[in-house]
Amino acid sequence: QVQLVESGGGLVQAGGSLRLSCAASGRTFMIYAMGWFRRAPGKEREFVGTITWSGTSTHYADSWKGRFIISRDNAKNTVYLQMNSLKPEDTAVYYCAASRFSMQSDSREYEYWGQGTQVTVSS
């Protein structure tokens, strides 16, 4: 079992930045690739990006390339989502998830999920 807890969400003005954190506990965190997903109001959950277990490779959905950056610190069992140049349409609940497979954008490949953290971007 892996337990995931997101934090760092909140209210931010358009153009601002936020860094979300996802702290993991339980089974060995570093063997899992980690992904970030989001669910905007009235929309389906969508893939944001993912990072390999080593942290050496990342993959992002086209919508967030260049604005969002995923990193991880295996010594701290934590993965991060740095969000820059935020827009009102980035308002969503953001989730981190763990997968045994790298570079996965399909949520069905992720075994463990956090409870989510709300990000609200005001115009």
Q: What characteristics describe this protein?
A:
123 residues; mainly beta; 4-stranded antiparallel sheet; 11 strands; 0% helix
Low-confidence stretches: none
Percentage of residues in helical conformation: under 10%
Gap between N and C termini: 40 Å
The class by helix and strand makeup works out as: mainly beta
Largest beta-sheet details: 7 strands, mixed
**Number of DSSP strand runs:** 11
Sum up the overall morphology in one term: globular
Q: Count the helices. How many? A: 0
Explain how this protein is built.
By secondary structure, the chain is mostly beta strands. The chain is built from no helices and eleven strands. Strands 2, 4, 5, 6, 9, 10 and 11 form a seven-stranded mixed beta sheet that branches. It has a four-stranded antiparallel beta sheet with strand order 1-3-8-7, with no helix packed on it. It is globular, with a radius of gyration of 13 Å. The termini are far apart. The mean pLDDT is 95.
Brief synopsis:
By secondary structure, the chain is an all-beta fold. The chain has strands at residues 2-7, 10-13, 18-26, 33-39, 45-51, 58-60, 68-73, 78-83, 92-99, 112-113, 117-122. It contains no helices and eleven strands.
Give the topology, please.
Layout (H helix, E strand, L loop, with lengths): L1 E6 L2 E4 L4 E9 L6 E7 L5 E7 L6 E3 L7 E6 L4 E6 L8 E8 L12 E2 L3 E6 L1
Parallel strand pairs: 2-11
Antiparallel strand pairs: 1-3, 3-8, 4-5, 4-9, 5-6, 7-8, 9-10, 9-11
